[in-house]
């Protein structure tokens, strides 16, 4: 066959990997890892299974990419919250960011990092472990920020940074679960305000 008559190879024309990944994120966010079938994913992404595997790898690899996108996008409020001037401001920003991200009408409710591996079987244990690590990293960042607050005198010297971080993350993840159940943002914000009136909670 002459060189000039070769059939073009590579991705189909019009296939945008970034847009496809965003659509996959929405499916995983709404249905969780196991609840999102390959048919669901490729249909939402507008590509074939072959294209999905060729561009993103298998389903687990695609989920990892989607979680990275979630961390850099919807969940970026956590990194921003850590720059707040006081520990109380950090806690307020974490809870407000959680509420805002988990209740937006234009996107799935709840948190990908909490719901992504719910009811995951043994076959999805690596994804479950991935999300445990993702949540632990968020907890560790908040704990270290509270530790600095103790060192700086912003929190009482007897404050346990790890315990305080655990309380804040427990409240945040609890809000995410309630948001997924349909609890409106206004009610969650009222609960956040009530919790923080007892600052530093421990």
TrEMBL record:
One Pfam entry name: TetR_N
Q: Does the keyword Transcription regulation apply?
A: yes
Q: Where is the HTH tetR-type domain?
A: 14-74
Q: DNA-binding residues per UniProt?
A: 37-56
Keywords, A to Z, come to: DNA-binding, Transcription, Transcription regulation
Q: Where are the transmembrane segments?
A: none
Which domain of life does the protein's organism represent?
Bacteria
State the protein's name: TetR/AcrR family transcriptional regulator
Q: Which organism is it from?
A: Actinomycetospora atypica
